[in-house]
Fold each of these.
Amino acid sequence: MAFFFAQFLTGLANAAALFLVASGLSLIFGVTRIVNFAHGSFYMLGAFIGVVLMDLLPGHVGFWGAILLTGLAVGLIGAVVEMVVLRPIYRAPELFQLVATFGVILVIQDLALMIWGAEDRLGPRAPGLRGVWRIFDEPVPKYDIVLIAITPVILFALWYLIARTRLGVLVRAATQDREMVGALGVNQAWLFTGVFALGSALAGLGGALQLPKGGADLLMDFNIIGAVFVVVVIGGMGSLPGAFIASVLISVLNVFGVTYLPQSTLVLMYVVMAVVLIVRPYGLLGREEVAGEHGQVGAPETPIRPYGRKGMALVAVLLALLALLPVFAEPFVLTLVVDMVVFALFAASLHFILGSGGLVSFGHAAFFGGGAYAAALLVYHTGTPMELAFLFAPLAAGLLALGIGWFCIRLTGVYFAMLTLAFSQLVWSLAFQWRSVTRGDDGLVNIWPAEWLSGDIAYYYFALAFGIGGILVLRHVIHAPFGYALRAGRDSPRQAEATGIDVKRVQFAAFALAGAMAGLAGGIFVFSKGSVFPTELEIAKSFDALIVVFLGGVKTLAGGVVGASFMTVVEDWLVRLEYWRLLLGLVIIAVVIVMPEGIVGTLRTLWRRLRHSDEEAV
Amino acid sequence: MNLMRRTVLATAAALALTPATAFAQETIKVGEINHYKRLAAFAEPYRKGIELALSEINADGGVLGKDLEFIFRDDQGDPAEAVKIAEELMTRDGAVMFTGSILSNVGLALSSFANEKKYLYLAAEPLADTLVWTSGNPYTFRLRVSTWVQAAMLAEEAAKTDAIKYATIAPNYAYGTDAVEAFKTNLKMLKPEVEFVAEQWPALFKIDAGAEVQAIERAKPDAIYNVTFGTDLAKFVRQGTDRGLFEGRPVYGLLTGEPEYLEPLEDEAPEGWFVTGFPWYGFEDGTPGKTFVDAYEDFTGETPKIGSLVGYMTAQSIAAAITKAGATDTEALRMAFEGLEVEGTPIGTLHYREIDNQSTLGAWTGTTAVEDGKGVMVDWTYNDPAPYMPSDEEIMEMRPAE
């Protein structure tokens, strides 16, 4: 009994930092609708700034003062980020801002490395709180007790701010109806900046408060972001009490998981999230989302049309160029183009459900990596000929998408996105931990193409045929009646249902097709690299695709392909430089600000202005 | 979308990819692929070790009458990206061979690439033993001492005590699992009656240290085997010390004594643990190790890490192989690496075994202590890896036929 209680206290103490960071994210999302991936970076900044300040300021006052100052400093940084990066793009398509926040992550990572160096910093101890108290004869660190005491105070303060002050009324009003708040004469821009600063400050506080239990290092940003999103979603987007309950739930479950299922450390919280979302689609205390405006912010979309004759001719020229490439290009260019084609098909498959279906998936890597693994497992364990194994990749990924889609399709918006993320993490952990089959993160190696394809040029044509073929099939489906039905379901589910379209079923089928196509990309990928590792199933991989789709332009058909090509080339160039993350981050932020409709969308608008026509076809 | 623009974009992209004109071969180039950003704390000292060795080699006239040059490339810690870079080093940059990687999965991807494309790879730092054993191939050589050997050294020490019940804690990924497996196998061979009462598997760099410490304490082990490192180790040590987990229990720490992990702990470094590591501060004057440490401190103004040593010996090994081969084509280099003797390294003469392409770099073991507010190893010894290796027959069985 005493042991249980001690464990429970450990869980509660762990919940403190998690709750602070998550409550900030939840606030920001609730008001501004921004899914802020850079939130983990503010947490990391809080840790580093906290370490520096605690070194400077002595004693009790210095320690707690440093924590408060850190919160202020990170809040200011958050305000600057909001004004410079996010303010220009509030009118962009929904979720477009997440691309900008991704750029912010990269910039902060390199700046932190420049300023504080690569070494991990051990956090200073809280003065006077070294050692343990014995509670029922079980040792409990003193600082844990302090954390447990602080958290409800912060929760109460936040609740008071939101529920009892004029500012809180405005914030709540903004979550309900932004336009109305604007119409009543409230300066929305400053409200948003204020909320973003407060959310960042909370993350910074979390980073500083955890110092006596840990420290500051350069991997903190990504290491906490998964857990934070899980907490926010389980609690219900925008609900502070929900975030509190969820962070306690996750932390306490983790502690018991460590004791009773030591191997479950990788995946437990995602399992919890999946279960919660399947039972309660809007989280524990979340309310049903106001219907998102998927791709509907700003001007209404013009209906898409297939390319005209000019368009066809141009595509043909482009393809001919690619086909002739081996004649005049060096081998490495072929490798790069194969990478590009793989990534373009992967992005196009995500773009298919995201752009045409309005289904934002955060877990699309499950199908890319799933396809790659399916082919690799066959080759590795049964020695299946490569041609057969390759065909198995889209098939297996499509089946996987059917399975995952069956659970996810019921949900909408961010909750749908998070459930796909949870499932992709399950797939990842399977590949990671089922070592007898997948070799864990030692990966599956020596998965090379058949003899007749093993030359650079032969494989180049093979990749081109299947990659471009897959992209063309997706385009064709978009222009087919099925594609129209999918778009109808995106733009107006009720009217679509009324005309006899079974929206959910169409979405389900589209999800499976997108999965199969991502799997095809995975198949091309695995035989071009010769090995596959769980990294191909990671969250980062899903986000890569998401980012290029938004970067290319959600509302255009070529967005995914162009975004992926752009990113492949830019990365290949920048990675040669010392501070490539900083530069890449700045490039992403610049593109986002200059081209809020994505690369293709903005070019199209320019083109129209130049020609006063709607020559465009996509 | 506007196709005209897209074509322009694509053409621009294609133009951007045209090769830079190759300059005349002034130097002999070696490719180096690493995670300079993602694992900066480990990759930087390694790089400086290479640069030190290169400055010495080139001051002595280089290799085959030319300067030796390394092309450093960042792979973002991603195996697929690393394979792409290896391809570029091979086909565009004219690197005669390549080396690098700290992460085992990247090392394995590169090794598979090397075997497929017949291009020589020296795996400098990856710890996964499958590189030279179950997934070994003729084109991959490895410098760093294997996990199996280091775990066996700790197991040998552990078998001397009368501890019967062991708890293990290791990060939840391949390296952690291999390290625990190696320790268990070796210890059971020496002392069949030991039992493992708790196995903890925190996610890498996401340890819930309080909970892990409670879980181990609950199992009441006689001794603990630790594989955590980096921030996980710092949190584990702090919580364990606070909660009294280490009192009266011997602790065996894999890699815990390496400066990369011991130094950040400062005066909170654990005391009395038996660890593998790199006690550079204890080398005596006149030994090759001390010469290296002094040269490194002069060259960089920093104290060496184990990565520095590995980087230094990587460049030394490659220079020795090129000199022995007398040529730079892959087959000549590969034959040179088979059974290569590298003279004058910080540990004396280094040898690459013909049976599994593994170098004979050993490991230092010793006991941790805190001196002048810093964690150090005391009573340390340098151990040759040979006695701890699996037998030749076992290795032949594991390695795919060549």
Note: Residues 328-540 of chain A form one domain.
Amino acid sequence: MVKKSVHEINRKIEDGSVNVVTAEEMVTIVEELGAEGAAKEVDVVTTGTFGAMCSSGLMLNLGHSEPPIKIQKIWFNNVEAYSGLAAVDAYLGAAQISDTRGIQYGGAHVIEDLLRGKEIDVHATSYGTDCYPRKVLDTIISLEDLNEAILLNPRNAYQKYAAATNSSKRTLHTYMGELLPNLGNVTYSGAGVLSPLSNDPNYETIGMGTRIFMGGTQGYVIGNGTQHSPSSGFGTLMLKGNLKEMNPDYLRAASFTGYGATLYMGVGIPIPILNEKLAAATAVRDEDIVTTIEDYAVGSRDKPVIREVSYAELRSGSVQIDGKDVPTSSLSSFKNARKIANELKAWVKHGKFFVSMPVERLCAEGSAKPMKETQVVPLVKDVMSSFVVTIKRDQTVQDAAKKIWANSFNHLTVISDSGELVGILTAWDISKAVAENCFDSVESVMTKKVLTCAPNEPVDLAARRLDRYGVSAMPVIDAQRQVLGIITSDNISKLLARRY
Amino acid sequence: MKIKITIPTERIHNPIISESIVETGILINIMVANIDSTYGELIADVNDLKFDKIKNALESRGAIVSILDRPIHRDEEECIECGACISVCPMNVYSFDDSWNVLVDEKKCIQCGVCIKMCPHGALKLGE
Ligand code: SF4
Ligand code: SF4
């Protein structure tokens, strides 16, 4: 049994005799020496990760103006921050987007600009009080003008993350990047072998108070992250660090097309090797870290799992799905994760960084709950019209016109002899056919590529589809393509009128 | 060099490409072809010295030929070498080397622009 204390290790850091390796190097050391031998040899293992961490933000204090103001609303370069705190504090979320520049520029970009020494426009408003009479404030600040600029990240450094793919027929724009149609690619995030929490999965040394590498300086773990889900291997951390000391190499603003702004953060955590159990845990390899590939074609919380996959396979460049090689893309940078682990290693080695034990451990059990929703989400079948006027495809345009006239209904669904949906015809299609002197069969003038929806889909999804494709109605069909009803923008407006 | 051959709607039923190849004896390497009943667009590789000749042959039959000379450009300052661009590029322009640096083989680029949208750091542009 090897037993070391953090104090012993820190003494070794002080006198320069510490043996520190990266989590990547530790894999072979444990292979060669065994866990016990490695625990004797190695004092500290460094980890690193560099990826998109949307749940980040800057807690800042502006100092008082003259006359003073109790800020109610505030914008930095037109990105709104939250200031419902005391008079001149605000929290600028990385994912908040600019009122004027849209998703290209967000809170993350303001944070990076501040760090790079750029000047930032500040606009603030207030209702005015006797003690804080001022109602409007406009100024220009840079990082050094702030009293505090603390990066406060509620959910960072996921232990691992599910990979993403897309089985639908169109490209999806997501926080997991561009997902090509028909399972065209897989994207993933996380540093695998170097991932901090995967190297200490029982959270023995990573907890509240653990000193870490954060954005190029020393920061701290201040607790578990939000949505901490240790039982499923998706632990997260809440972190704090001083932006004024950080380095833009390790803090980069980003924007995902069609999704929005996010912050790439560099985080590294040293793991003091106190015993052989920790040595064994830090020998974790990409092969050992298993996650799932989920299908983002389904716009709901529970996405279908396509398969399980290890980080080794994800990082090989392609994964097998249904016997096909699908190319993979990493969204986080392994090169930078490695750079961080090595930089932290150098800090420890040269006596610039001392390891710490948590003052309180993170809970190692439990999982994040879904949202409690008191209002039932209406489904398509709840709002659709079950009165549908259908027409057979070989009937004439004149038959169609008569039907529309008789039922004062704008959409005819066209069905085959066995009742399957084959097309849709609107009053407008008929006017067009008449204008062009075309009185053939319905089939020759109908729209064949019909957008449809399923009865159990949430109305919101159907509404988004109507909107995206600029159509006013969609037949509701079952698995056999039999028409059950129709949902129109009218149904949806009525629902909204009831809701708000 | 890489060229784009666009075939307008009214010519789509003529064997423009084959005729031009047969007439000039110049082989072109077709890398991407999007052809349907209304429109055709091909990306092909052709020997620099033979470009003028095949261009004349194609254009005399109504095709539009342009040189693809603005391959993708990566701003190394902006790039964080995540590799997000790798999986979306149809021509495998991007790859990781052994040290997880992102390599860019610009010569293969057909300027489809897909990677530009994928890059979270705005590091990619079609060059001038
Ligand atoms: S996606 Fe952009 S940032 Fe990432 S490697 Fe490619 S060019 Fe670089
Ligand atoms: S423009 Fe298209 S072909 Fe060129 S590098 Fe980007 S994705 Fe690849």
Note: The longest strand of chain A covers residues 148-156.
